[in-house]
Structures are given as structure tokens and as C-alpha cells.
Design a protein that fits this description.
The complex is a heterodimer of chains A (about 280) and B (about 475). Chain A has about 280 residues and is an all-alpha fold. Chain A has 12 helices and no strands. In chain A, α3 packs across α9, α6 packs antiparallel against α9 and α11 runs antiparallel to α12. With about 475 residues, chain B is α+β, with helices and mostly antiparallel strands. Chain B has 19 helices and 8 strands. In chain B, strands 1, 2, 3, 4, 5, 6, 7 and 8 form an 8-stranded mixed sheet that branches. Classes of the chains: A mainly alpha (about 280), B alpha+beta (about 475).
Chain lengths: ~280, ~475
């Protein structure tokens, strides 16, 4: 590598250094320190107990309920928000909607949680029938999540659709392929990298829905929508570090598995259609 | 300008006066006390005690009693080289949540409190044991063998016992034309007397009156079904909550004119210092002017019938209106992370010695606790407290009989000390708060509203219990 090239690389590292330091100190280091806490008897007794907390936590009814709710939420809400976002962005792309509509799509992200919850309380917690108090409360949470997150995904999809290789679509049209054929065989495969990014962002945004539910229902909501964030938030105030960290690592494993599934699907698809 | 100079001079005078007081206090110490003070400063032989929750929230009397016992033991017992200073941890908190946070921080510290005082009537040891905070006592205390068998536990050193009893004012009862009941009185007799009492006297509602009302309706209500599932939202519970509210608004209970509904709600909840003082003011007023029944005495302490304000003929009776008798006890747990835990154990061994148990009994300390050891029964029977008066002499034989009966029942296992799990305590505390919120409220909740709220409470309690 030439001197100029090395210098350029060095400068890049210098510029990245503050960000990397912060990331290491605030994310990577606490992540590994946390493992130690999860293997201690409690915050009050530092005795090493190995994986005992990981086994014991599955006897904790509140944790199991929260984990189940989170998984139900992720399995339903994340694919749903991805489908809704893609369909809406495709429609907007095909109909060539104005910029104002595109801007309007992103507004939900910018609205504070308190205002969102106030609005949805009126909608979902009506005196005649309160969906948030019923057995279908999860549906309300999924709707809030889709409403809030779809805008961001639409922007990503719109950008990806705008940059598609139009010559392949035109060639297919000339060869007599209908719209559905073009969509299935050309547009969807070209959207795979963006879809993977949208999936990861959707998983991350799914944690933010807790804020809205918390404002709607407090620390102890309808058990149908009692999430791991509720569990962790409540036990944090009781200084139950061992339960908190154990729950966090188990949750991390599930999120990792979820992301891995998306990654595998993406790789398989790309292998079939070619990068 | 003159005012400012005047203010400065005033401040200087106050500061000077305070310093003089300090110097005076210092000079008042005896030589041995001064020597002791210097010793503690040099050696740091200090044990610290974390008190039960209610002390930090309202009951400051306990603090003085624990310090008094600690100081007595320091002055009299320890060999000079082993002398230990007892300090009670002070926490400035305004709510139960704040208290929990502060306590947790203290207990997670490597130099935490030496001893943790627990009041097992209202708290559970479950968490202290599960989290590895409580140290196993094993055979470390020489005097532990004297503790009643029914109180012995691997992690716990009991300080004293209390059994719910009732005293009735025989004079006033006769004035009311009522017969003075005997030990075999029933729940119906109790409530009949209470009804007459409220008819004839302006009794202001306070914590104790509410407690009686609450127990009347809920003492025999199961808050969990047979499978252990929380079961609050049912017709019986709703009926009873509405009945408590109806009783409250029926005019049987008088509200102290200066109290707002909000203050009243806080007072019956009794979880702040302000609430405690309101409650005490009303209690004293009720007892001085309208005393007929007090069901908050320790039936195991034959002289708990002595009352500085009430030099009247009183009769101690078993508490009948709550279903099962309530036996509660208070004691200490040794913190595994505590400072100077070897001195903490020494202190505990003194506290359960014959002399100190009798000292606590005789001085009617720690909310009039009765001894937790079985070896001083003769001393209790033979030696009366110093301030015994005619009234006590009159009631004493009966009180001794009641005590003997309860101890025999405890030893035979017929009745057992209150040992509630953390889960049950959470359930009971939350439900009681709920009843208070519904009954003492400016809003008149409909049956449907109560049911909806109960449904929410049921879910909330389920999560709290299982987290």
C-alpha cells in the first residue's frame, strides 16, 4: 500500500476512534461484565453459581410469560411490519406519489411516546370495549408498532425501489411477463438486501414499543402484553441483578437466533438468484 | 442596615449558644464514658443495625428502644477489649419505593449493616435467605438453646413475641349497661360491644378502627383459590368491599373534622410519618375520651394493660374477631456482608440472655414485646414491674393465665407464629390498599367499576408475586 493510502487509512481510524471507544466502553465491556453478574447468587452475595440462574429463571412465571409474549410479538409483528411497509412502498412507487406523502409516512417516528399513547388510549381503551384490557391486547400493541415503524421501513424500501435495475424489468415486460411475475421473479429478489436491513431495524425498533405500552398501562400491564422489558425494568428497581442479566442474555440469544434466521434466508435467496 | 447587623449578631449568638451546649454536654460525660468514646474512635468496634421498614416510614420509637438496649449492653456487659458500639442506620426516605432502593444499595455494599432487624408479622425472610444475605447462625450463639423451639430457625435470632389481645374498659362497659365479657367471649359479643360503643361515643376513625372493620369483613376471605391462583374478582369480594364502604359512610364512624379524604386515606394506609402522627393524635383522643376497647395489646405481656393515660379497670381478653390468633415476632438476621459480624453475634447472644430478655420485658420495650426464651418464665411470674398499680394487680392474675394458655398452645403447635411468604404478603398488602382506595374516596365507584379495577389488580398482583 502506498504512503498516501496508509495515511488515509490511519486518518479514518483516528476519526472512528471516539465512536469505537464509546461503543467498546458502553456496549462491549458491559456486555461481558454482565455475564459475571448473571453467574452470581445475587447482587448481595457474589458467590459463583455457574449456570444455576439460567436454569432457575425458567421456573419464574413472570419471566416465562414475558419471554412468550416477546416471541409472539416478534414472530407476528416483525414480518407484518415488513410486509405492510413493502406493500405500501411498492404502491407509492408505482403510483409515483408526491414528496409530501412520503414525508407524512415518517412522521410517526418523530411523535413523542406520550402523545402516541394518549391517542391510542382513546382508540383502544374505550369504555364500551377496551381492546387493551382484553385477551386481544397484543393486537393493539402490534398495530401501534406497525404504525410507528412502518414509515422508516417505507423510506428504506422506497430508496431501494428507486435504485432498481429497470432494464431487467423492462426486458421481462417485453418478453411478456405480467406484473405479478415481474414482482415475484425480479423485484422481490432485488429487494432482498434491503429486506435484511429492514428486518434488523424492525427487530431493534420492536424494543421501542415498550415505551408506548408502559405509558399506556404502567409497570404491570395486562399480562397479555407484559414484555421482557417490563420484567427487566421491574426487577432492576429491586436490584435483582442476577435475574436482570440472565433475562437479558437469554433474550439476546433469541434475538440473535431471529436475526440469524433472516440472515440465512437472505443468503439462500441470494445464492439462488445471484448477488 | 441595622436589620442586617442585627441578624448577623443574632446568628452569631445562636452559633455561640449551640457550641456552649456541646461543650456542656461534653463536660457532663463521666470519665469512663469519655474513655469509651475515645476507644470507639480509635478501634472502630461498631455494629450497625438496619431497622424494619415501618421504623423508616413512621415508627421512630423502635429506634430509641434498640439504641437503649445496645447502650445498656455496652455499658454493662462486654469486656473492655471487646466493647462494641451499636449504631442504628438512619435513612431519609419518603416512600416505600425509595426505602427499598436505599435498603438494596446498603445491603449490596461490602460493608453493609451488621444486623438486619425483621418484623415477621409484616415482613418475610424469604428474600433475605434466597439472595444469600442471611448468615446461618448454626451453633454460634451460646444462649440460642433457650429460645422457644417454635421460634428457632437456622437464620434468625428472635428478640420477642407478640400475641394479639384485647383490653376492655370494664367501668365504661357497665355505664353502657353491657355485661363485662369473659375469656370465652365470641366474635358476635365483640361486635355487639363495638356497635353499642359507637352509638354512645364519638369515636373517630383511625388506623386501628379501620383495621377492625377490615378484619370483620376480610379475616376469613381466601384471596387465592385452592390451586394457589390469585382470586380477587368475585362476587363475594366485591360485596364485602362495598360493605366496608357502606359502613364507612353510614355515620357509625366519625371523621376528625380537620381531615381531608386524602389525609384519611393516607392515615389508614399508615405508610408515612405524617400518617403515623395523625393516627397517634386520634388514637390518644379516642382512648382518653371514649375508650372502651383496645385490641392492639400484647396478650403475652401480662402488664400490657398498663396504660399511662388510662388508670381505669381494664380486662385483658383473647382477640376473637379475627379468626385465628395472630402471633408475631421480631428479631435479627446477621448480614453476610455486614461489618464486624463477630461483634454482631456477641450482641445477639446478650440479647437472648435471661437478663436482657427480662430487661426488655420489664421495661416494656420494642412495642411491649414478650420474651422469646423459655428460661425466665419463673421470673415473669414472680417479679412484677416496678410501676405496678392497683389496676394491674386486679387484672394481673387473669393476664398471666392468658399468657400461660397462649404459650402452651404455641408449644403444642395448636397455634403457630405468623410466617407468611413473600407472595402472600404482596397479595395481602395490595388488596388492603385497594380496599382503602375504594372505601375512602370522594368518588363513589359503581359495582362494575370496582369489578374492572379488581380485574386489573388481580393481574398486577399475579405479576408482582411471580417476578
Amino acid at each position: 500500500m502506498s504512503n498516501g493510502g496508509r495515511m488515509k487509512k490511519f486518518k479514518a481510524y483516528i476519526i472512528l476512534l471516539p465512536s469505537l471507544t464509546g461503543f467498546f466502553l458502553l456496549y462491549i465491556l458491559p456486555f461481558f461484565i454482565g455475564i459475571k453478574f448473571s453467574m452470581q447468587r445475587s447482587a448481595f452475595n457474589k458467590e459463583f453459581v455457574g449456570l444455576a440462574n439460567y436454569i432457575k429463571i425458567f421456573d419464574n412465571e413472570a419471566f416465562v410469560l414475558a419471554l412468550k409474549n416477546n416471541l409472539i410479538f416478534m414472530v407476528i409483528a416483525i414480518p407484518s411490519v415488513m410486509i405492510v411497509s413493502f406493500v405500501v412502498s411498492l404502491l407509492m412507487h408505482e403510483l409515483k406519489v408526491s414528496h409530501w406523502i412520503k414525508i407524512a409516512m415518517i412522521i410517526p417516528i418523530a411523535i413523542p411516546s406520550a402523545a402516541v399513547s394518549g391517542f391510542f388510549k382513546t382508540v383502544f381503551d374505550a369504555e364500551a370495549f377496551s381492546i387493551i384490557e382484553s385477551n386481544f391486547a397484543m393486537l393493539a400493541v402490534i398495530i401501534i408498532y406497525i404504525w410507528r415503524s412502518a414509515g422508516f421501513n417505507i423510506i428504506i424500501y422506497m430508496a431501494a425501489l428507486g435504485q432498481m435495475n429497470k432494464s431487467a424489468i423492462e426486458a421481462a415486460s417485453i418478453d411478456g411477463a405480467g406484473y405479478m411475475n415481474r414482482l415475484y421473479h425480479i423485484i422481490l429478489p432485488m429487494m432482498i438486501p434491503s429486506t435484511f436491513f429492514v428486518a434488523i431495524m424492525s427487530i431493534m425498533n420492536s424494543f421501542k414499543v415498550f415505551k408506548d405500552v408502559y405509558i399506556l398501562q404502567g409497570a404491570y400491564p395486562n399480562p397479555q402484553i407484559y414484555m421482557l422489558q417490563h420484567y427487566m425494568n421491574n426487577i432492576f428497581s429491586k436490584l435483582q441483578n442476577e435475574k436482570l442479566t440472565t433475562a437479558a442474555y437469554i433474550f439476546t440469544i433469541f434475538i440473535f437466533l431471529f436475526a440469524l434466521v433472516f440472515y440465512k434466508v437472505e443468503r439462500n435467496y441470494l445464492d439462488k438468484v445471484g448477488d | 442596615m441595622k436589620k442586617i447587623i442585627g441578624l448577623i449578631v443574632f446568628c452569631l449568638v445562636v452559633i455561640g449558644a449551640l457550641q456552649l451546649v456541646d461543650i456542656y454536654k461534653e463536660s457532663q460525660l463521666t470519665e469512663s464514658e469519655k474513655e469509651l468514646q475515645a476507644f470507639f474512635e480509635d478501634e472502630g468496634h461498631v455494629i450497625t443495625i438496619l431497622m424494619p421498614d415501618n421504623y423508616y416510614l413512621y415508627n421512630w420509637q423502635l429506634y430509641n428502644d434498640v439504641l437503649a438496649i445496645g447502650n445498656t449492653i455496652i455499658m454493662k456487659e462486654f469486656d473492655y477489649d471487646d466493647k462494641v458500639k451499636v449504631e442504628v442506620i438512619r435513612l431519609n426516605v419518603n416512600s416505600r419505593e425509595e426505602l427499598m432502593r436505599e435498603k438494596n444499595l446498603l445491603l449490596s455494599s461490602e460493608n453493609g449493616p451488621t444486623l438486619i432487624m425483621v418484623d415477621l408479622g409484616y415482613n418475610s425472610m424469604d428474600e433475605l435467605i434466597d439472595y444469600g444475605i442471611a448468615m446461618k447462625i448454626d451453633d454460634q450463639l451460646e444462649n440460642y438453646k433457650n429460645v422457644y423451639d417454635f421460634l428457632k430457625d437456622d437464620y434468625y435470632v428472635p428478640l420477642g413475641l407478640s400475641a394479639s389481645g384485647t383490653i376492655v374498659n370494664t367501668d365504661t362497659l357497665e355505664e353502657m349497661g353491657e355485661e363485662v365479657p369473659n375469656a370465652d367471649w365470641t366474635r358476635e359479643d365483640f361486635y355487639h360491644i363495638q356497635e353499642k360503643w359507637f352509638e354512645d361515643h364519638d369515636v373517630y376513625i383511625n388506623y386501628y378502627e379501620f383495621q377492625r372493620l377490615y378484619n370483620y369483613y376480610f379475616a376469613d376471605v381466601e384471596l387465592m383459590d385452592i390451586t394457589g391462583k390469585v382470586d380477587l374478582n368475585n362476587a363475594q369480594t366485591v360485596d364485602k368491599i362495598m360493605a366496608v364502604r357502606d359502613e364507612f359512610i353510614s355515620n357509625n364512624y366519625k371523621i376528625e373534622p380537620r381531615m381531608s379524604m386524602n389525609t384519611l386515606q393516607k392515615m389508614v394506609r399508615l405508610d408515612t410519618n405524617d400518617a403515623w402522627w395523625w393516627n397517634e393524635r386520634i388514637r390518644v383522643e379516642n382512648e382518653v375520651n371514649h375508650f372502651v376497647i383496645n385490641d392492639n395489646v400484647n396478650a403475652l405481656h401480662p402488664f400490657s394493660t398498663y396504660h399511662p393515660l388510662l388508670y381505669r379497670p381494664l380486662k385483658l381478653l383473647p382477640r376473637v374477631h379475627e379468626g385465628n390468633s395472630t402471633i408475631t415476632d421480631m428479631g435479627f438476621i446477621v448480614n453476610v456482608n455486614g461489618v464486624n459480624s463477630e461483634y454482631g453475634l456477641k450482641f445477639l447472644d446478650h440479647i437472648i440472655s435471661d437478663d436482657y430478655q427480662f430487661y426488655i420485658y420489664e421495661k416494656k420495650m420494642l412495642d411491649v414485646l414478650a420474651p422469646s426464651i423459655s428460661t425466665i418464665e419463673d421470673r415473669i411470674l414472680n417479679k412484677h414491674p416496678r410501676k405496678v398499680g392497683d389496676v394491674e394487680k386486679k387484672v394481673a392474675p387473669f393476664a398471666f393465665e392468658t399468657r400461660a394458655q397462649i404459650i402452651a398452645d404455641l408449644e403444642s403447635g395448636k397455634i403457630t407464629p405468623n410466617r407468611k411468604s413473600r407472595q402472600v404478603l404482596i397479595l395481602e398488602r395490595n388488596f388492603r390498599q385497594f380496599v382503602i382506595e375504594i372505601a375512602f374516596n370522594d368518588i363513589f365507584f359503581s359495582r362494575k367499576q370496582i369489578e374492572d379495577k379488581l380485574k386489573k389488580l388481580e393481574r398486577e398482583v399475579y405479576l408482582k408475586m411471580n417476578e
